[in-house]
Design a protein that fits this description.
By secondary structure, the protein is of the alpha+beta class. The protein has 4 domains: 121 residues, Immunoglobulins (Immunoglobulin-like, Sandwich), CATH 2.60.40.10; 310 residues, Glycosidases (TIM Barrel), CATH 3.20.20; 61 residues, Oligo-1,6-glucosidase, Domain 2 (Oligo-1,6-glucosidase, domain 2); 67 residues, Immunoglobulin-like. Keywords: Glycosidase, Hydrolase.
Length: 581
């Protein structure tokens, strides 16, 4: 048995309160190395005849990666403290106990066991229940619909299907979103994610000039209130995009720094290495070299805020509270969240929770994010690391099936279960190529990949226009104007997406909380069978990502399928096909 592979950490994703009276425990061992694991546990203060008398329960084998196996158990807690250790039995017949001071031949004394000294409900990671029930729809406001031509910026171009240039404007606004809310309702959408709407010179609005002002080209405060009210009347939650990592260079704070240099009252609001602030322009508007201050990426037009400065903190936290209290928004999406200090985000969470107890905080983090997801900062992150594995297998064909499953399982084991249930799952966005473009216009492959993602833990998000088969490579081509002309819409794709969203809603609790099981058949290395199971409920899906049709035993009539032929004794699933039953 590989003792070095055994791992556990209390008060983490390996031991956490799932509900106030339910503790979930995990242990990691080497893959294919352990026969059984037993949890030995009890209240450390209850002794019988002067000795500790712990209970023993067998743990369940859970998710497996290429390197590790995870063992799990849920305990109902009647007393709010626990000492525990593990007995691990290897496939080679050897046995060891594993406690706070490592492995050993005998059960460790209480002082050498892992401890959960007291279960503090205030420390339990909590997520808004409504998020589990949500299917999000992402809108890039400048490209969704032009509902009010009177607020168009100078040089606004006619609405078109052509790929835009980086600096183009087409007049999309908040009234355009209001005008098309019934489209979202018809699809089954109940969460609206808006890219930034605050005053900024660009079409994307990530270069904020004024956090307290709706961009005049999008409307005004009253337009936003009308939109949020109309959404809430339709059962749609609203999430705004906040850019607290940096300001735009047209903001009054940065303009004061340019004018007054080191004497500016805002000089310490930013990370400035030398005055006067300056840079060498690059080949395009977004890039520069020899910048004397910290920025987002390499663009001199987005100077980075010093969120350790108390004045900056107070300013940004007032913004966070303002839009919740004055406009009743339901969520913040936080741009470049991983480049802002944890100290600030902890204060941010406290402010949001005080303003609205069931508020959803979503961080833009493209990599593993344990330190942000312990319950005192974000509710979830944009789950790029999870969906990248899906894309690498189904779309890009970069990795084999077993490796995709391994990557997905590893990501799930990074976080507490309640966090996994509200992770934000996307296949494309304003920052990536469109899904249909990545699929080389293979619509069946796009539908297969979407179906797989919608069955995963977490909540799905649809990028505007994907329901009509919109295309586009990287920014700015992925930000085309929404196709409202029926002639240009893929109605078959729309009907599929509507069915898929309906399936997600109909099986929501199972898909949010159900156990995930994988089956890969050696004879069909590109056929994946997955099952979601919760109590007596079960949903199974089979995906053929291979190059040839496969025959599987006849199954129940599918709820949703693509490229499937039902025969008397067998079911034929064509390449890029799937069935959910």
């Amino acid at each position: 048995m590989d003792l070095a592979a055994i791992y556990h950490r209390p008060d983490s994703e390996f031991a956490f309160l799932y509900q106030p009276d339910r503790l979930r425990v995990r242990l990691q061992t080497a893959s294919n190395d352990v026969e059984a694991v037993y949890l030995v546990y009890g209240d450390p203060y209850i002794l019988v005849d002067g000795s500790w008398q712990p209970k023993t329960i067998r743990m369940q084998q859970g998710l497996i990666t290429d390197l590790a196996c995870f063992w799990t158990i849920e305990l109902t807690i009647d007393r709010r403290r626990l000492a525990y250790a593990f007995q691990v039995i290897g496939v080679d017949g050897t046995s060891t106990f594993y406690g706070d001071q490592g492995p050993g031949p005998i059960l460790p004394k209480i002082d050498a066991c892992f401890r959960m000294p007291y279960f503090q409900e205030i420390d339990r990671a909590k997520v808004p229940e409504w998020v589990k029930q949500t299917v999000w729809y992402q809108v890039f406001p400048e490209r969704f619909a032009n509902g009010d031509p009177t607020n168009d910026p100078d040089g606004t171009l006619p609405w078109t299907n052509e790929a835009p240039q980086a600096q183009d404007f087409y007049g999309g606004d908040l009234q355009g979103v209001i005008d098309h809310l019934d489209h979202l309702v018809a699809l089954g959408i109940n969460g609206l994610y808006l890219n930034p709407i605050f005053m900024a010179p660009s079409n994307h609005k990530y270069d904020t000039r004024d956090y307290r002002m709706v961009d005049p080209h999008f409307g005004n405060d009253e337009t936003l209130r009308q939109l949020i009210t109309a959404c809430h009347q339709r059962g749609i939650k609203v999430m705004l995009d906040a850019v607290f990592n940096h300001l735009g260079d047209q903001s009054p704070q940065w303009q004061d720094v340019i004018q007054n240099g080191a004497a500016s009252r805002y000089a310490d609001w930013f990370h400035i290495r030398d005055f006067p602030v300056r840079y060498q322009p690059g080949r395009n508007f977004e890039d520069a070299t020899d910048i004397t201050y910290d920025v987002f990426a390499t663009t001199p037009h987005m100077p980075k805020l010093n969120t350790a400065n108390p004045e900056v903190q107070a300013y940004l936290l007032s913004i966070a509270r303002y839009w919740i209290e004055a406009f009743d928004i339901d969520a913040w999406r936080l741009d470049v969240a991983n480049e802002v200090d944890h100290h600030f985000w902890k204060k941010f969470r406290q402010v949001c929770d005080a303003a609205k107890p069931d508020f959803y905080i979503l961080g833009e983090i493209w990599h593993s994010a344990q330190s942000w997801l312990s319950g005192d900062e974000f509710s979830a992150v944009m789950n790029y690391a999870y969906t990248d594995a899906i894309l690498d297998y189904f779309i890009h064909k970069k990795i084999p099936l077993h490796q995709m499953v391994s990557k997905l399982n590893r990501q799930l084991m990074l976080y507490r279960d309640q966090i996994n249930q509200v992770q934000f799952n996307i296949l494309d966005s304003h920052d990536t190529p469109r899904l249909l473009t990545m699929a080389n216009d293979n619509r069946r492959l796009m539908r297969q990949t979407m179906a797989f993602m919608y069955l995963q833990p977490g909540v799905p998000c649809l990028y505007y226009g994907d329901e009509y088969g919109m295309t586009g490579v990287d920014d700015p081509a992925n930000r085309k104007c929404m196709v409202w002309d029926p002639v240009d819409q893929d109605q078959a794709m729309y009907q599929f997406v509507k069915q898929l969203i309906g399936l997600r809603h109909g099986k929501q609790k199972l898909l949010s909380e159900g156990q995930l099981e994988w089956l890969i058949e050696p004879t069909h290395p590109d056929v994946l069978k997955m099952t979601r199971r919760l109590g007596e409920q079960q949903l199974t899906a089979v995906f053929n990502a291979g190059q040839t049709a496969v025959s599987v035993a006849s199954m129940r009539t599918p709820i949703l399928s693509e490229g499937v032929q039902q025969q008397t004794a067998a079911t034929i699933i064509e390449p890029d096909g799937f069935m959910i039953y």
